[in-house]
Amino acid sequence: MPFLLPPWHLIELCYVLVYAIACLGLNLLFGTTGLLSLGHAAYFGIGAYTGGLLHYFGPVTSLEAYLLSGVVGSTALAAVLGFLCVRAVRIQFTILTLAFAQLVYSVFISGAAFRPFGSLGKGLYFLYEGGLYLPRLTILGAEVAPEEFIPALYYVILVAFLGSTGLLWRVSRSPFGTALRAIRDNETRAACVGLPLRRYRWYAFMISGVFVGLAGGLWGQLDRQITPDQLHWLFSARLVLATVLGGTRHFFGPVVGAFAFVVLHDVALRWTEHRDVVLGLLLIAVVFAFPGGIAGSAAGLLARTRGGSR
Question: Are residues 22 and 250 in contact, defined by beta-carbon separation less than 8 angstroms?
């Protein structure tokens, strides 16, 4: 793609792939397990902030260390908060994820996350208003020229996307994935056959946090900045919306939804003053046109076509 697309479209493709990683991770919890989270922005943001803070106050200068530290941070947070959240189900679970995510957001927007770093952390907080600006980190130990950085980062994002897709596909098709779908469809029956509901939901929550955190780290380097907005529940709603647009019951639905959401967002930006109104109308139109999600509607149409041809 770096040889086929102009720079701006290549950047847009990078955003699509990063969104797709986050939506695939979220859908393991939402579509596969049946638990709606409005707090996954917390793991997305922590995936970026962890490496960003280590860059400013530690030895992290490489993209690999930055991403790894972000994944570790988001996984640890998902393990702790997920352990608490899975004690509830349905709307209570959703409210808990939202509440915990807003607590994490408040830690960064208030500057509390920067205070352990002393006067330097305090100054950084006031300088960037709770955000961080990232330089171009080294890739595989080499500094990449500015004009070559986005193509190089695209390949990193592409590898992350393919790896995430492959791993989540294996999880979805494994006995563990089958158990998650059984819990989603009928938790009473799943409990009767001996499935540990709470423990499996916790595992799904943690795995979901891993991939959403990875996406957050990639987003931070692609955007070259990290802001508290990436921790806000409204960003969680974006991920949910993109996932639903594609279709939660189809594995590649979130990928389709990520692509559709970015395209619709770009179309709406042409009307600068009324972009939110235009985006809302476009999303309403897509939801009415594809009530089962874009991937779900396409699969249904393909099935009817095959049935008619017989």
Answer: no
pLDDT digits (tens, 9 = 90+) for 42-56: 999 999 999 989 988
Both structure tokens of 73: 């941070």
Q: For the purposes of burial, counting CB atoms within 10 Å of the CB of 5, is it exposed (0-12), middle (13-18) or buried (19 or more)?
A: middle
The chain-wide mean pLDDT, for the chain, equals 88
Question: 3-state secondary structure string, 41-99?
Answer: HHHHHHHHHHHHHHHHHCCCCEHHHHHHHHHHHHHHHHHHHHHHHCCCCHHHHHHHHHH
pLDDT in tens, 227-240: 888 998 889 988 99
3-state helix, strand, coil in the chain (%, to 5): 75, 5, 20
Give the tens place of pLDDT for each residue, 255-291: 998 898 888 888 888 877 777 888 888 888 887 887 7
